[in-house]
Specification:
Its main location: membrane. By secondary structure, the protein is mainly alpha-helical. The chain contains 18 helices and 2 strands.
C-alpha cells in the first residue's frame, strides 16, 4: 500500500497496469481479424510498445487487428504519450474533481523536474497543444488522403487521425502495412508527421517557455536553450549524414529525384530521435547510416515530453563535463551557467545504466539467435529509446527476446531513475562518510 501513496512508485505501477489492461483487450476475439484474439506474447508486446510509445510490432497493424484492436492501440499510445499520471489528473479536472497536492506532485515527477506550482498550467498547456496539433495534422492528412489518393472520407479520416495521434505521441505506429513508404515522395504526408514529432519531442517545458517568452532567447531557461539548440544541431547532422551515405544507395534514396532525396533524408533525421515511422527500408541502410541511427536513437529528444533515449540535456551535460575537464576548469558550463554536481551525477547514472541495459539485452539476444550484431544492436537501442524503427527482425525473435525488448521499452518510457526509485527500498542516510582516496583514472 505504501507504493500507492508515493507518486514516484505509483507511476511504474500505473504504466504496468495500462499495459496489462491493453494486452487483455487485444486478446479478445473481436480484436483480431481471424476472430481468435491475439496470443499472450503478441498482445503483451504490442500493448507495451503502444503504452511506451515505441512502435515496434510483431504483427502487421493494418491486417492483423480489427478496427476495435486498432482503436485500443491508438488509445494506449495516447495514454502513454500523456503519461499515466498526467492523463489521470486531466480526467479528474474534467470531471470537476479538485486539483490536489498529490496530483500536482505526481504530475511533476512524471513530467521530469517541473515545479509543483506550475503543474496545473503545464497540464492545461499539454491538453491545448495536444488537441491543436493532433487536430491540425489529422485535418491535413485526411484531406490529402481523400483528395489526392481517393480514399473514402471515413477511411481518410481514420488514417489521418491515427497517424496524427501516433506522430504527436512519438509512437511510430502506422495504419499502413509499410508505414509511410508508399508516400515517400509526398511532402504533405511526411511534412506534417515530421512537424508533429519535432514539436512534442522538444518537451513541454520548452513549450512553456515559448508560451511565456516567445522567441526571446535571453528569457529562456537553460533547459530550453540546450534542448532547442542541440535539437537543431542533431537534426542537421543526421540530415547531412543520411543524405551523404544513402544518396546513391539503390535500395533507399538512389532511385529518387533530388527533392525526394532531401525530403526523405530530413524525414529520417527526425525519426531516429524518437518516432518509428519509416519512409525508407531501414534494413537496406548502409553500415554508416545504421551507426548514425544508433547515436541519434540513444541520445533521443527533449526531457519531459514523449521522446525517448537518454535525452538531449543528459548528453549535453556530459559533453560539458568532458569539455571542462579538457580545459582544466572546475565547473561544467554552458550558456553562461554552470551545472551542479547532482545534475552531472544524474546524467552519468542515466547514461551508464542505459548503456549497460542495452549491452546486456544485446548479448542475450545474440546468444539465443543467429542474427547479425548490427541488427540486434539496432533493435535493442530502438526499444530502450522508444523509437520503434527496426531492420525487420522483430517478428522473427523468440518470445524470450521479445520479453527483453518489452522490458527495455518499459524502462525507456518510465525512465531509469524513476524505475530505480520505485524498486528501491527507502534508505536512511548514513551518519558517516568514508575517508577520501582517489584511484588512478585513465
Amino acid at each position: 500500500m505504501r507504493a500507492l501513496s508515493d507518486p514516484v512508485r505509483m507511476i511504474p505501477l500505473l504504466f504496468a497496469a495500462a499495459i496489462l489492461i491493453g494486452a487483455g483487450l487485444l486478446m479478445l476475439p473481436f480484436a483480431t481479424i481471424d476472430g481468435q484474439g491475439a496470443s499472450a506474447v503478441v498482445a503483451f508486446f504490442t500493448a507495451t510498445s503502444a503504452v511506451a510509445v515505441t512502435g515496434l510490432i510483431v504483427v502487421d497493424t493494418a491486417t492483423f487487428w480489427t478496427p476495435f484492436g486498432k482503436g485500443v492501440i491508438l488509445l494506449l499510445f495516447q495514454i502513454g504519450g500523456f503519461g499515466i499520471m498526467t492523463a489521470a489528473t486531466l480526467f479528474g479536472l474534467m470531471a470537476g474533481r479538485g486539483f490536489g497536492l498529490r496530483d500536482r506532485i505526481a504530475t511533476s515527477v512524471e513530467r521530469s523536474r517541473l515545479e509543483v506550482g506550475d503543474a496545473r498550467s503545464v497540464l492545461a498547456l499539454v491538453l491545448k497543444i495536444t488537441l491543436l496539433v493532433e487536430a491540425v495534422v489529422a485535418g491535413i492528412l485526411t484531406l490529402r488522403f481523400a483528395l489526392t489518393y481517393g480514399f473514402p472520407i471515413d477511411e481518410a479520416l481514420w488514417h489521418g487521425v491515427f497517424h496524427a495521434v501516433s506522430a504527436f505521441n512519438n509512437a511510430g505506429f502506422s495504419s499502413f502495412s509499410d508505414s509511410v513508404m508508399s508516400y515517400q515522395e509526398d511532402g504533405l504526408i511526411l511534412g506534417p508527421i515530421m512537424v508533429a514529432v519535432v514539436i512534442t519531442a522538444l518537451g513541454f517545458p520548452v513549450m512553456q517557455d515559448l508560451r511565456h517568452h516567445g522567441l526571446s532567447w535571453n528569457a529562456w531557461t537553460l533547459h530550453s536553450k540546450i534542448t532547442v539548440s542541440a535539437t537543431l544541431v542533431l537534426l542537421l547532422i543526421g540530415f547531412v549524414a543520411i543524405a551523404a551515405k544513402e544518396w546513391n544507395n539503390p535500395d533507399t534514396l538512389g532511385p529518387m529525384g533530388m527533392g525526394a532525396k532531401l525530403l526523405n533524408a530530413a524525414f529520417h533525421s527526425v525519426m531516429p530521435r524518437t518516432a518509428g515511422f519509416n519512409s525508407l527500408d531501414v534494413g537496406a541502410f548502409r553500415g554508416e547510416t545504421l551507426l548514425m541511427n544508433y547515436i541519434l536513437m540513444f541520445i533521443g529528444g527533449g526531457s519531459a515530453g514523449t521522446a525517448g533515449g537518454i535525452k538531449i540535456t543528459t548528453f549535453v551535460v556530459l559533453l560539458a563535463v568532458v569539455a571542462s575537464e579538457v580545459r582544466h576548469r572546475r565547473d561544467a558550463e554552458i550558456f553562461g551557467r554552470r551545472f551542479g554536481s547532482g545534475v552531472e551525477r544524474q546524467a552519468l547514472t542515466v547514461t551508464v545504466a542505459a548503456s549497460l541495459l542495452i549491452a546486456l539485452a544485446s548479448m542475450y539476444i545474440l546468444a539465443i539467435t543467429e542474427l547479425p550484431m548490427e541488427a540486434v544492436l539496432f533493435e535493442t537501442i530502438s526499444a530502450f529509446s522508444t523509437v520503434g524503427l527496426s531492420t525487420g527482425i522483430t517478428a522473427d525473435l523468440p518470445p524470450s527476446a521479445l520479453a527483453v525488448l518489452a522490458f527495455l521499452m518499459f524502462v525507456g518510457r518510465v525512465g531509469t531513475i524513476t524505475v530505480a526509485t520505485a524498486l528501491a527500498l527507502s534508505a536512511e542516510p548514513r551518519p558517516f562518510r568514508y575517508p577520501e582516496e582517489n584511484p588512478i583514472v585513465g
